[in-house]
Structure formats: structure tokens, C-alpha cells
Amino acid sequence: MRGFKLLLFKEVKALFSSEIAYVLAAMFLVVMGYTFSVAFFLNRVASLVHLFFQMYVLFLLTVPIITMRLLAEERRLGTLELLLTSPVSEAQIVLAKYCAAMSLIVVMVILSTSYAIVLALFGQPDWGPIYSGYLGLFLLGSALSAIGLLTSSLTANQIVAALASLGIFLLLWAIDDFGLILPDPYDTLVTNLSLSTHFVPFATGSLYLSDAGYYVSLTLLGIFLSVRALGRR
After folding, report:
1. Given CA atoms 198, 202, 204, 206 in this order, what sign does their dihedral have?
2. Which H or E run contains 219?
3. How far is the C-alpha of 20 from the C-alpha of 146, rounded, in Å?
């Protein structure tokens, strides 16, 4: 357990010591701040639903950048073999990398709660969709981080890892449109694979165990396959 804590501290420190983390967080907040200001102060919309959907899209674009270096950089630098011979298991290595990526996502989500505070000060928001929306963002970020970690575990090239993650994310984003042209029951099966299908209820204030289970399943699958990928090394 001590080895896991040291590795986690090392990964979190490395992430927040890089300019990428601060650039991503700053861009995220600027875009969100602009969208919120236009919607609330100009259009008088006392809701964060539109903001949740924009954060959803930004996660699709930023998470590949966060996760691309996690294991790909270890392979490129030749330190992966050294890491695998250290007194930590493959599962602990993967979990430390995953938790480090999630730490930045959690920070970004927490910083975005400032918009909810402003909304409460100047308006009368419906808090149900706000609570469920943030829960959905956390689950979405968790699933995307696990998938990004998986692609990073399969290559030594960070750009390839980022592009592979982005490709998978965009496929899972748009796959529900593809499902519309398929015959029954394949249309329902394909539509249920969509990230959007399971995020919309969270953003609009509806909570279903099936939607939470979808994101949890993606997270566990990504972590499991990442461990297996390391095991093959």
C-alpha cells in the first residue's frame, strides 16, 4: 500500500507540475465562463443544463490530452520495465495512473461549481439537475479517463494514444445516430452504447441506475484491460 501511495503522489505531482494541466484548466474555465455569462446575464437562463452539455464536449477533447502520457511516456522513456519490477503490482500502477488523471478532472469540475454559486446568488435555480449533472460529469470523466489510460497502455507514442482516445470518444458520442438507421433490435443495442444517451438524463435531472452502471462498466473495463495490457509486457 505504501508503494501505491508513493506512486500516486509521484503521478499527481508530475501532472500538476506540467504546464498542460494549467493550460487545460484555464481554457476549460474560460470557455465555460463565457458560455455561462452569455446564457445567464444576457439571455437570463437560470440553469446549468446547457453548461453541462458543453462540459461534456470539452471532456471529449481534453481527456485524451490528460491521459495520453500516463503509460505511453513510460514506454517511450524505457521506464515501464523498471516500474514493473518495483514493489507495486500492475493493478496498483494502473490505479495510480487513473487516480492521477481523475484528480485533474475533479479539480476542473470543482472549479466549475463557481457558476452554480453565481447562479444561486443571482437566481433561483432548480438544484436537482445541478446535482445530477455534476454526478454525470464525474462518471463521464471517470469512464473517459479509463479508456484514455487503456489507449496509453497500448502504445509508446503519446500522439497516437491521444488520437486513438479521441477517435473512440467521438465514435461513442455519435454512435446513437448510427443506431437510428439499424433495424430492431440492433438499433436499441447500438444506441445504448452511446455516451450521449446515458449523459442526457443526468444533465436534465433524471437519475437511472442503468446510466450510472454504463459509466461504471466502462471505467472498470478500461482499468481491467489496462492491467491486462501491462501484464502482457
Report:
1. positive
2. helix 209-231
3. 19
List all residues 6 or more positions away from 165 whose beta carbon is below 8 Å from its beta carbon: 63, 64, 67, 68, 144, 147, 148, 151, 152
Residues in the chain: 233
The answer to whether 231 and 90 are in contact (CB under 8 A) is: yes
- The amino acid present at 94, given as its one-letter code, is V
Q: Which amino acid is at 185?
A: P
- 200, 46 in Cβ contact below 8 A? no
The pTM assigned to this predicted structure is: 0.90
Q: What is the pLDDT of residues 101-160, one digit of tens each?
A: 999 999 999 998 888 888 888 777 778 888 999 999 999 999 999 999 999 988 888 899
pLDDT in tens, 14-32: 888 888 889 988 988 888 8
Burial of 183 (0-12, 13-18, 19+ CB in 10 A): exposed
- Euclidean distance between CA atoms 50 and 129, whole angstroms: 11
Chain segment 101-111, per-residue pLDDT in tens: 999 999 999 99
Look up residue 190 and give its three cell numbers.
447500438
Find the mean pLDDT for residues 94-101.
92
C-beta neighbour count of 52 within 10 angstroms:
23
Task: For residues 91 and 102, give the distance between their C-alpha atoms in angstroms, rounded to a whole number.
Answer: 16
Residue type, 115: Y
